[in-house]
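Collaborator request, handled under Task 6.
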Amino acid sequence: MDPGERPDPEVRDSATESEAHEASSAFGPAAGEGGAEPVVGEPVASRELPTLSDGELAPPLAPLRSQSRLGDTGANILHDLESRAQNARTQVREQRDKLRARNDAINARSGRNLAFAVLFGVVLGGLLLSSLIFIKELFIPFAIAMVVFATIELASAMRGAGRDVPRIPLVAAAVAIIPAAYFLEVVGQWIALLVGVLVVTLWRLVEASVSRDRPPRKAVWADFLAAALILIYVSYLGSFTVLLTAQEDGQWWVLGFLIIVVAVDVGAYVFGLNFGKHKLAPKISPGKTWEGFAGAALTSVVVGILVSLFLLDQQWWFGLIMGPLLLITATAGDLTESMIKRDLKIKDMSSWLPGHGGFFDRIDSILPSGAMAFALYFWSADSTLW
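Structure tokens returned to the collaborator:
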């Protein structure tokens, strides 16, 4: 047939039937011809297929992916994620156990909770720096608190060992001697000490006199000596640090000698922990070693020179004197406190500061070192006139 020729109506109907037959044969039996019901997943022939805009039939839709296949894939992904999470938890648990074991080993060797000790040291150092740098009068309540707590600890420990030490007059004397030393200096320091000794003595005499079971005279004298030790070692020596603070630029000297004492403690701890083999004083303090003392001596010299040059405005050689002297006083104070605890048969003065033992355990090296720093302050003033 030519392109422009119109087809005969019969021929046109025949052609239409032929196309319908081809379409039926391509997608299955036509509707109404007794074909079977469509099978799920196979092309739908019994339903009316959508047509495109030009009248042609739309191509058959692709079969959907099996849901079981998607379910298996999702299950595999979840299993993989759970396995990785379990491995991560196992690794974290192992690392935590290793850190805990290492920390326990360090605490066992050092005899204290190192983490809490460092944390408390940072907090205490921050309060100390704030009181010295900004307004040095704020150091007075700080010093009173430290001396009072140390006095209570030592007095309670002695009472636990059988010494009837009156705590109330001891605390009153500790509170009085600190501001007296700051505002009245040496005169006020000595007056407060003598009045404190007198009050404590009278207090104990009155207690012994009115007691139903009067203690032996020897026991009362032992109580006097124990109270006097607390007054002199804690309150009196502690007041020297306050007395030094009251001097011109004295706050920097207090800060300087405290830095040296802390450096001595850290140097002894680090060197003793890593190299300590030979005991320094096994009957007094079994944890101290000559290797730790050597490390503390080296640290005291280095830090003493730095403090002298950059904080105290002294010559470098002054640090060669100041460092070792404070090493001796700090070590003597630490050993003295160990002797007291051994005599009282206790490990720590109190449990108020876990990881530190107590306030007295923290200031045992500072107490005699403050008196030495006070002497070095006036010696340096005289040495500048040479």
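The cover message to the collaborator said: "The radius of gyration is 45 Å. Residues 1-47, 64-68 have pLDDT under 50 and may be disordered. Please let us know whether this matches your experimental observations."
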